[in-house]
Every structure is written in C-alpha cells, then in structure tokens.
Design goal:
Blueprint: E1 3-4, H1 6-10, E2 13-14, E3 17-22, E4 25-28, H2 40-46, H3 52-58, H4 62-68, E5 72-76
Parallel strand pairs: 1-5
Antiparallel strand pairs: 2-3, 3-4, 4-5
C-alpha cells in the first residue's frame, strides 16, 4: 500500500492533474475528468482535497464505486486521516 500525504494531494489540484480523496483513499481522476457524468466542473471543485462529503451527498451508486477502483493510487497518510475508521 502506498501512503500519500495531504500535502502531496493538494499539489494535484488542476484539470490536467486532478487527485481527490474519498474515504481516506486517494484517486487520480485526471483521465476520468472528461468522462465524469456529473461534469468536469464538479471534479474541478474538489481537486486536491477531500471530496468525501460531496461524494456521499450526491449518493453515488455501487457502479460508480466500482469505476473508482481503477483510479485508486494509494491511501491517505495515517497522520492526515480525519476518520481513522472507514466510513462504510
């Protein structure tokens, strides 16, 4: 397992280099950005930060969670985790 610090995630905050955190896991969504059903702008708004609340609020499907797996690049460093236990 690769641990990625919040500081590192924050550096990837633009449309051409877009990482987000969902439930303490880090995803590189750069290549998925143009395919995102909710529009590119919604990903741009959470680029480089924790998008867990936004992700849960939208109510993403199990299918969306399956798609996410191929963009997973590592876990948020333990020192940066807000919640030590998984949200689900």
């Amino acid at each position: 397992m690769v641990e990625i610090t919040l500081e590192t995630v924050k550096e990837h905050n633009k449309p051409t280099d877009l990482w987000i955190i969902i439930e303490n896991k880090v995803y590189d969504l750069t290549k998925f950005r143009s395919e995102h059903p909710g529009g590119e702008e919604t990903l741009d708004e959470v680029a480089g930060r924790d998008g867990t609340k936004d992700f849960i609020d939208v109510g993403h499907s199990q299918e969306a969670r399956e798609i996410m797996k191929k963009y997973y690049i590592g876990d948020l460093a333990a020192k940066d985790c807000k919640n030590k236990l998984p949200l689900r």
